[in-house]
Amino acid sequence: MAGATLRERARYWFDNTMSRGTVSLVGWLAIVSVALIMAVTGLTLWLAPREPEGAAGPGQVLWIALMHALTPGKLASDKGSIAYMAVMFAGSLGGLFIVSMLVGLLSNGLREKADRLRRGRSRIVEKGHTVVLGWSDQVFTIVSELVKAQASHPGSVIAVLAERDKLDMEEQIREHVGDLGRTRVVCRSGRPTEPRDLTLMNLAGACSVVVLSPDGEDPDAHVIKILLALAKREGAHPPVVAAVAATRNIPAARLAGGGEVHLVDSDDTASRLIVQSSRQSGMSVVCMDLLNFDGGEIYMRPGAEVAGRTYGQALDAYETASAIGLRGPSGVTLNPPMDTPITAGDQVIVIAQDDSRIRLAARGPAVDESALAVAERAAPQAERTLLLNWNGRAGQIIRYLDAYVAPGSVLEIAADHPRAGANLDGLRNLTVNVKDCDTTDRYALESLGVGLYQHVVLLSDDRFTPHHADTRTLMTLLQLRDMQRVLGERYSIVSEMHDESNRVLAEVTEADDIVISDTVIGLLLAQLAENRHLADVFGYLFDSRGSEIYPRPASSYVRTGAKVTFSTVVEAARRRGETAIGYRDATGLNSPPHYGIVLNPPKGRPIIFKEGDSVIVLAER
User: Fold this and answer.
1) How many CA atoms does the CB half-sphere of 284 hold within 13 Å?
2) What are the beta bridge partners of residue 558?
């Protein structure tokens, strides 16, 4: 191929300079303007050397040419010879084109800049902010909870990076979250999997990073790519919390993220909560109360405050908080043995309304010995559980349930799912039967003899879209509640749903245990973003080993009908090796949103328990 000609090279160079944007175009326009002004000045000095009248040399002529180029309207006031007027006319005409092009270029440049800002491509310069990477329905729960957690910290910032329009993200957050208080939410458009886009978030100045599991197929691959992008960054690495949808992907995510990342297993957490809620009515309400920032929250207190006491003696040490466990060098233990000594190096795990309200009791507990009840703990009995519908986590739920129930327990699976009951080998305590059943059909449900079961678990069918699956769950829930009303039967029901807004609809069915998987994971991520050490606490709480939350008859602790303080209840539970954290009023059993559950009541509050009321304790099975 022949070499490029000089004209081709010049045109290529010109095209490259023109493609550099508004600044390059304005530069060329300035060169043309200077050339025009110099040409007008030279022609004026040549063709009309004595004009305009009163001109004091070439400098003043240059100024007049400049004014004609920038302000073409000045031509109307000019007087002089034809040559002078012709040159000024040409200069004004050229200036008209130059000014028009300049205005257009500036307007276009400002519009491009505004569009860039609108797209959210500028770098964040905040410090101490919380970064959220990715987008799903969990983002609304996380932002809402972080706003509550940071309400006492003016100027707090939450920064969100996702592959969405900046204005659209901000509008959706305002619509779902509402009042943001003194917290600012800053959104940026970009790909969280791209290290270049991550630089927009000023991660070096962030206090924590939350990685969301997005909606759609194979969300964990997206999370792992974000963790890899974070690991490739140079400089400071803030603590990272990430949600992984499938348990099988945890090892790959841990390898991608490294030691600075805490992983939340969404399937495992939701499965454990469903199982515990199915066996202990109100468990989901208690856990939601502990996970959100509205009511009782979990805090760590320095052991030096109560050093020298045993754990049992520390149960009444706080007037406005309830001790639930200890965190020492060996890790977290909830409801440890009552004679466990507390050292200055330990941390006391407590439930409180706010860390600023925690204070030590001024005097010893007021315990009414005459009101204490003596009751034998009932031996575990075989249970009958009905599982309605099937989905990908059903097998995991059944295996966790098998670890809880007594030998000889029965699980009946009723579903029309083609994989219902698959891969359930190795169960030790459960006998499993499978029946084909359309769970939205009233006659099919009645044929199951639901009243023969103590517990009913209603899962979301994964063959349908989340919205359609929730609709079917609501239909089944209505049928079950109506059957209870007509037949006078009583059994606990725990339902799994996707959309938090459906909880309000479900409340008309008097369903007190509803597990919204996305909401639970969002609440847990928000808690860990504020305090990563709580991961061990919630992991212990959801585990079948060790102590768990149980609502037990109040009559097993104190005499019903007698006025007692909560300190008396705490003492009664302590003597049984349990930790009392609250109670449940049976009259509020079907009253949302707390369904009669009161956590961390003041130690001196007088309470009169009735038959049917419960004391909520941390205890071994």
Assistant:
1) 32
2) 372
- Do 350 and 323 touch, CB atoms closer than 8 A? yes
Q: Determine the Cα–Cα distance for residues 268 and 274; give it in Å rounded to an integer.
A: 10
pLDDT tens string 177-217: 888 888 899 898 889 999 888 988 989 889 999 999 887 77
**Domain 130-259 architecture:** 3-Layer(aba) Sandwich (3.40)
Token reading at 242: 């990430």
CATH topology assigned to domain 17-119 = Helix Hairpins (1.10.287)
* Per-residue tokens: 444: 């099919």
Give dist(CA 263, CA 198) in Å, integer.
20
Do 17-119 and 130-259 show the same overall fold?
no
CA 592 to chain centre: 23
Q: Exposed, middle or buried by CB within 10 Å (0-12, 13-18, 19+), for 435?
A: middle
Cα 315 to chain centroid, rounded: 32
8 A C-beta contact, residue 502 and residue 470:
yes
What does pTM read for this prediction?
A: 0.76
Write out pLDDT tens, residues 339-385. 999 999 999 999 988 777 788 887 767 787 878 887 666 677 899 99
Is residue 539 classed exposed, middle or buried when 0-12, 13-18 and 19+ CB atoms within 10 A define those classes? middle
Report whether 170 contacts 128 (CB < 8 A): no
Q: At what angle do helices 534-541 and 517-530 cross, to 10 degrees?
A: 150
Q: In sequence order, what are the residues at sequence separation of 6 or more whose Cβ sits closer than 8 angstroms to the Cβ of residue 131?
A: 159, 160, 161, 201, 203, 206, 208, 209, 210, 238
Paired strand residues for 334: 325
161, containing H or E segment: strand 157-162
For residue 511, which phi and psi values (nearest 5 degrees)?
-90, 115
Nearest to 529 by CA among 258, 154, 124, 206: 206
Q: 3-state class of 488 per DSSP?
A: coil
CB 253 within 8 A of CB 263: yes
Q: Provide the pLDDT confidence category of residue 219 given band limits of 50, 70 and 90.
A: confident
Reported as a pLDDT band with limits 50, 70 and 90, residue 159 is: very high
What single-letter DSSP state applies at residue 190? S
* Domain range summary for the chain, segments of one domain joined by +: 17-119, 130-259
